[in-house]
Specification:
- The chain is mainly α and 120 residues long.
- It has a domain at 2-16 and 55-115.
- The chain has 4 helices and no strands.
- It has helices at residues 2-19, 27-48, 56-90, 95-115.
- Helix 3 (56-90) runs antiparallel to helix 4.
- The chain is elongated, with a radius of gyration of 20 Å.
- The mean pLDDT is 85.
């Protein structure tokens, strides 16, 4: 039972890092999003006199990183909530279980926070 938490955390981490968004961005996606960003930039320039220039590829990669980190953070919270509400009352109550659940949840949340894209 103690290693199930570790295996679950490892599976979630490997899924997010290796499988999720495995295929690279296509030129079609980048062009479509760049057109969208250019339209917003033109509108901001006309209405508010703001210079707004963003790179579509960079923004799409940031969005992918945000989604990955959000999934890691949420999975850490959900493992903690589900474990304390469902698994702990059924299993033999032990301090070791609480420590392992807390460490695994903290590990996933920390990975998610470290993966969150930062502003330059």
């Amino acid at each position: 039972m103690e290693f199930l938490y570790f295996i679950l955390v490892l599976i979630i981490w490997l899924y997010v890092e290796k499988i999720m968004y495995k295929k690279p961005l296509t030129e079609k996606e980048i062009k479509k999003y760049q057109k969208f960003l250019d339209d917003i930039g033109q509108k901001a320039k006309e209405e508010y006199n703001l210079e707004w220039n963003y790179d579509a590829k960079e923004e799409l990669l940031k969005e992918r990183k945000k989604i990955k980190s959000f999934i890691l953070i949420c999975s850490g919270f959900f493992i903690g909530i589900i474990s304390t509400m469902v698994i702990l009352p059924i299993a033999v109550f032990s301090f070791l279980h609480i420590i392992l659940i807390s460490l695994n949840c903290f590990f996933l949340i920390l990975l998610g926070l470290l993966k969150w894209p930062r502003k330059k």
